[in-house]
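Q: Hi! Curious about what Hydrid cluster protein-associated redox disulfide domain protein looks like structurally. Here's the sequence.
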Amino acid sequence: MKFTLEMKLKDIMAANPKTVEAMQELGLHCLGCPFSVNETLLNAAQMHKLDPEKLLTAVNSVEQGEMSDEAKAKAQPKGAILQMDKKTYAIAPHIPAGVATPEILRKIADVAEKYNAAAIKVTSAQRIAIVGLDPADISNAWDDLGMDPGHAIGMCVRSVKVCPGKTFCKRGLQETLGIGMEIDKRYHGMSLPAKFKIGIAGCPNKCTDSMNVDLGVMGTSKGYHVYVGGNGGVKPRSGDLLVENLQADELIPVMDAVVEYFKEHAKPQERLGRMIDRIGLDGLHETVIKVINS
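A: Let's find out. The predicted structure is below.
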């Protein structure tokens, strides 16, 4: 079988498990991660700053065979992210809407202490990462936590950032926590053509970066504004205002329409903002207006 740069890592490994060794030798150490294996070979090369053609040649040169025990030992543990030292890993339990109970905080602290973590880090995606774990401890750490991994990497809905809204914040104009929990349950981890971030803010201060994520919501005194196509990175882009003053019961149908439109029209690895730059905003706007008026 001839592999291509557009093939996903998991499909390459399934077709020939022995390719894992070749990819590891070139610097891909995330082959045990359930999120990274959904990346294409091209995307993996770009993420690890490798020559795509060299990587492609390497996997196509491997004889058919099974993965060695050594390669299995080097594969990234499930739900973990390799750290700078190339020896230890971080795990980030999923905390919907960034709302943690005392029990969750105690669990995270106990696991970090039990397995001698180097640090506990609050991330920008409203998760709490346990950093610097030995790979041999990852599975037991997840068992002790009894929590799902946060989708920190991969072609999927990554984080759903949610502010306190009018439930707690004196500046909140609209409810966010209940809606945010529902949105998180609905979208977090969903496979999409490219990574996808969501931010829910209860007022125009946009503390959850609603204009700088793929799909952003901002509360106003009259309802919710929806922004699309924002992103950070090397080529940052501000989101476009899609619709204004939606009511709470209109919000999720509109977001569903945006996500489905993105699935249908985006190229592989193309962020929503780049898709809008390529085909324009009119089609998406018309689709959403039909949903609102239906």
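A: A fun detail: The radius of gyration is 21 Å.
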